[in-house]
Amino acid sequence: MQGLANADDIRHAVKAQYSQVRREPSAQYNFRVGREFAEALGYPADLLDALPASLSEAFTVVSNAALLAQLETGQTVVDLGSGGGLDLVILARKVGPEGRAIGIDFAPDVALIQKSGLDGVRVVSRGRNARTRARESQVSVIEAHRP
Questions:
Q1: Cα–Cα distance measured from residue 12 to residue 26, given in angstroms and rounded to the nearest whole number
Q2: Residues above pLDDT 70, as percent of the chain
Q3: Residue 2, domain member (yes or no)
Q4: I need a surface site. Which of 62, 75, 128, 137 has the fewest CB within 10 A?
């Protein structure tokens, strides 16, 4: 009988699964993925239409906290577990060009978000012990995704 996986094995499996979602959002998964799921959680269709389709195609989070966040122009927000990037881009739009939206995710393919050229979005690290280089006093809001 095979024993339970250790924390590193689980972390590796989750990282691999979410990286695959980013690369192949239309594949079959044992969890919900995509725009239809985003709309079911309350993301408005007109907002999704205004953003690159790749952001909603790889949507996998469990809440719509970014929609509810009351941010001001110029603030700095950190999105822990930024995944496919939908919430990260929404947060960046809320803080405007004077603000910063920093995304942190441990899945290597999340870096594709940064390469999309979206203004105000910065993915600082893909590592488990990511560092933003932002001092605590510089960060206005932290959004953390947990399933």
A1: 22
A2: 69
A3: no
A4: 137
**18-76 pLDDT tens trace:** 888 888 889 999 999 999 999 999 999 999 999 888 888 888 887 788 898 899 999 88
How many other β-carbons are positioned within 10 Å of the β-carbon of residue 33? Answer: 21
Copy the structure tokens of residue 83: 């995944």
Local structure of residue 85 (DSSP, 8 states): S
Domain assignment of residue 56, given as a range:
7-144
Instruction: Read off the tokens for 30.
Output: 């044992």
Mean pLDDT of 112-139: 57
Q: Answer whether residue 58 is part of any domain.
A: yes
- Of 54, 36, 58, the C-alpha closest to 45 is 36
Number of domains within the chain: 1
Phi then psi for 25, rounded to 5 degrees?
-65, -20
